[in-house]
Structures are given as structure tokens and as C-alpha cells.
Amino acid sequence: SLHDALPIYGVLELAKVTAHEVARPAAPLSAFVVGLAVGKAGGDAKAFAHATSVAQELAQDWQVAVETGSD
Predict the structure, then answer these.
(1) Residue 50 and residue 37: Cα distance in Å, rounded?
(2) In Å, how far are 2, 7, 36, 60, 65 from 48, measured between CA atoms?
């Protein structure tokens, strides 16, 4: 089914992390950029897992940088 083929919960988790760690408006942009990266990497589950992992890590690093005043 289409529901099984789409990683809906993974996209929602990415949006949640991005919205809370960076800014709410960054959530759709992050999802879009992850979609581009996944498509470029072949569009499979492994590509999605890697892209979302990197995006979530970047979002968390962003929040640390903001809190510490570092770039």
C-alpha cells in the first residue's frame, strides 16, 4: 500500500526535531531538502534513514550553537 511505502512517521519526527531545535518555519524546508537528498541517493529506505539522521543531527547541533553562542 501507499501508506507502507511512505515513511510518514520518519518525516513527522524530522519536522518535530527541526521545529523545536531550529525554528518552526524550518520544518517544511528540512523535509523538502531531505526529500531531495533521498531522491538523489536512490530513494530507498537506507537513503531516507541516512538523510533524516544527518538532518536531525544538524538541527540538534544548531540548537547547541545557539545556546553557546558559537558558530
Answers:
(1) 9
(2) 16, 8, 10, 18, 26
Q: Which of 70, 58, 71, 69 is nearest to 26 (CA)?
A: 58
Is residue 3 predicted with pLDDT exceeding 70?
Answer: no
pTM score: 0.76
The C-alpha atoms of residue 61 and residue 66 are separated, in whole angstroms, by 9
List all residues 6 or more positions away from 14 whose beta carbon is below 8 Å from its beta carbon.
27, 30, 31, 34, 52, 55, 56
Cα gap 10→35, rounded to integer Å: 12
State how far the Cα of 35 lies from the Cα of 68, in Å rounded to an integer.
30
pLDDT digits (tens, 9 = 90+) for 32-53: 999 999 999 999 889 999 999 9
